[in-house]
Design goal:
The chain is α/β, with parallel strands linked by helices and 400 residues long. The strands form 2 sheets. A 7-stranded parallel β-sheet has the order 3-2-1-4-5-6-7, with helices on both faces. Helix 10 crosses helix 11 and helix 16 crosses helix 17. The protein starts with 10 loop residues before the first helix and ends with a helix.
Length: 400
């Protein structure tokens, strides 16, 4: 019986065997951006060839060097009903991650937001003896606070992006660090109203309202129709024009289809523009904005444009959510401020009449807009104290 000669290990083999594997899990578009920035920072701190990232994310994380076992397009859902429809996909991707991790456990698991999925991953990683760093906290201070027990048991370090969260977690026995908000990195809105509106053939002297209805097709279906109806009511009162954001994650067609269906032949059809420009540039060149609740509302605050926060979802999902929510305010900006500085209108309260009425108050009473701008500037200063990706990368590196 012949035996083969042993293969001599080369430099590439030795380096591959010494690479530290890092599981990193993101489940939606903003976490994909933040995850990619974190990976790039870690590569700059540790030679890229010494780290092997795998997990779930989107195109940005893949470009940063993460080997994807699941894509955010298959994981991002809104509401309870919509998430239930995707349970099979969730489970398949979860099993894929665990299978990849059991044979050769990673040196570290880094989990970004996406709590329903990631808290299960955290539990499994702890059973494997893998340290867990959670970046971008589940909003347990707002709803389902009982999850603190699982976090305390399975998360070694919580990296939070809102100032009040650090104290919240520490008081409940979780090691937590405020790292700053990653949204502020490379945050340079294009404040050039004349040039920006001129490029899309709109009048810089005319009152301009931005419409940010969401970055998912279902959000557009639920939220945009009501915002367009509100826009028509505003137009009947003042000569306004509207910038409708079409997020890269959904493209022009879903937004265009809803817009055509709702507006039809409106009184001033030329006053509407559907734009694929960065949402922060759209906000920077508007006088007021309708903004979907979530990260986009914080982006509006950091730009400094007066706005209101709104949201609509399926009645069943909303009903279930109201049973779980404990915070008197839902808007991130108001939570950070500790008071309601931005109007919030959700679900049944978010009627075209109510939305248009609030917008007109700010458009017709400049002092109201100026007062909100001053408070938003304070929020910007508070959140810009630290570079999130840099601080988070330093915290993650302490586990490698």
């Amino acid at each position: 019986m012949c035996s083969s000669s042993p293969r001599i290990l080369g430099f590439t083999d030795i380096m591959a065997s010494n690479r530290r594997r890092v599981l990193i899990v993101a489940g939606e578009a903003s976490a994909d951006r933040y995850g990619s920035s974190l990976v790039e920072r870690l590569h700059s701190m540790h030679r890229p060839e010494t780290l092997d990232f795998y997990g779930t994310g989107g195109d940005a994380m893949a470009k940063a060097g993460v080997r994807l076992l699941g894509h955010t397009r298959d994981l991002a859902h809104i509401g309870v009903r919509e998430a239930l429809a995707g349970l099979g996909t969730y489970y398949r991707i979860y099993r894929r991650l665990i299978k990849e991790s059991v044979g050769k456990p990673p040196a570290l698991a880094v989990l970004l937001d996406f709590p329903e999925f990631n808290l299960k991953v955290a539990k499994k990683m702890k059973r494997l003896g893998v340290p867990v760093v959670y970046y971008i906290s589940p909003q347990i201070w707002a709803w389902r606070s009982g999850r603190i027990r699982a976090i305390r048991k399975n998360v070694d370090r919580m990296l939070v992006i809102l100032p009040f969260e650090e104290k919240y977690y520490r008081e409940r026995g979780v090691s937590a660090e405020y790292v700053g908000h990653p949204l502020l990195e490379n945050f340079n809105p294009d404040f050039n109203r004349g040039a920006f509106l001129g490029r899309v053939n709109l009048d810089p002297e005319r009152k301009t309202i931005a419409i940010l209805a969401g970055s998912r097709s279902r959000e557009i279906g639920y939220i945009l129709p009501t915002l367009l109806e509100a826009a028509r009511l505003i137009q009947r009162r003042i000569p306004a024009q509207f910038l409708i954001s079409a997020a890269p994650s959904i493209g022009l067609d879903p937004v265009r289809n809803v817009t055509r269906r709702i507006l039809g032949k409106c009184e001033d059809e030329g006053a509407y523009r559907i734009l694929t420009e960065d949402s922060r540039d759209i906000l920077a060149n508007a006088d007021f904005a309708f903004v979907k609740s979530g990260t986009s509302s914080l982006e509006a605050a950091l730009v400094g444009t007066p706005f209101l926060v709104t949201y609509k979802i399926s009645p069943l999902s909303w009903f279930i959510g109201t049973l779980l929510i404990r915070s008197p305010m839902l808007g991130l900006v108001n939570l950070i401020a500790g008071e309601k500085i931005v109007p919030e209108l959700y679900q049944k309260r978010a009627t075209p009449e109510a939305l248009a009425g609030l917008a007109l108050e700010f458009l017709e009473e400049p002092e109201k807009g100026n007062a909100m701008r001053a408070r938003l500037a304070e929020i910007h200063e508070q959140l810009s104290a630290r570079c999130a990706s840099e601080t988070a990368a330093a915290a993650v590196s302490s586990f490698l």
